[in-house]
Structure prediction request, 188 residues.
Amino acid sequence: MSHMWTGEKVCLRGVEPEDWKSFRALARNTVDERNADLVEPPRSDASLRAWTADRAGRSPRTEAFRLVVEVLADRVFAGAVTVGETDSRAGRFRTGIEISRDHRGKGYATEATELILTYMFAEQRYNKCEVEVYAFNEASLALYRKLGFVVEGRLRQHEYFAGGYHDVVLLGITADEYWATHSRPSVQ
Prediction:
């Protein structure tokens, strides 16, 4: 690995002002938007341009950030990955990922999440990553299970949308569990 933010298929990079159209495309499918978080009212192009310009102008922070997932082969936007809800005292953080429909099933979400886990465990000394996934989101549940996350609980009827209450599944992975199946980065 020549750059810790680069895998075999994708690289992670900061948000750029011109990414606003790609973020707009991610928000145009209600099911995808709901799977990633929640459905919000439509945003204007001007609002999205301002949002991406603001993100692009921010200094990087280690406690909460969003990075673009970019396909190495053609340098196109494939989605975004976030880190947030960090607790440095307890050594925990949360992550989430959203991949556009035309880039799914190609291993991009797996590799992007591995890059985040490697950074947070090897560089930031966090001990545990947690994710919350809607119980009906089988693709995300499969992704996290494949990466070694363990189901830690279920919040029953925890979120309300689409006319009903829905369960949220809590999953987690510790640094030791992650390193048991992944090689640590070299110092060279």
Observations:
- The mean pLDDT is 92.
- The helical segments are 20-26, 30-36, 45-57, 108-123, 138-146, 175-179.
